[in-house]
Amino acid sequence: MSTDMDVAAAETELTRTEKMRIAARVLIKRGVAGNGGRCGLQSRLAEHFGVTRQRVSQIVRQELHAADADPR
After folding, report:
1. Are 16 and 50 in contact (CB under 8 A)?
2. Which of 10, 21, 24, 42 is most exposed, with minimal Cβ within 10 Å?
């Protein structure tokens, strides 16, 4: 049984994840994410969003894969 607090936390997490995805897409389009050349970028994003660097890395990889699959 979930409480209102659990639902609010889940909605907050979704919002944070979507914001991270948007940030990743913007950085990929600018050519500063996904190429391994920006030392500390993922760490700074992780600190900003309050998640682990590994989570940021996972989202960047997913967005790179989605960008490669998008025929546009």
Report:
1. yes
2. 10
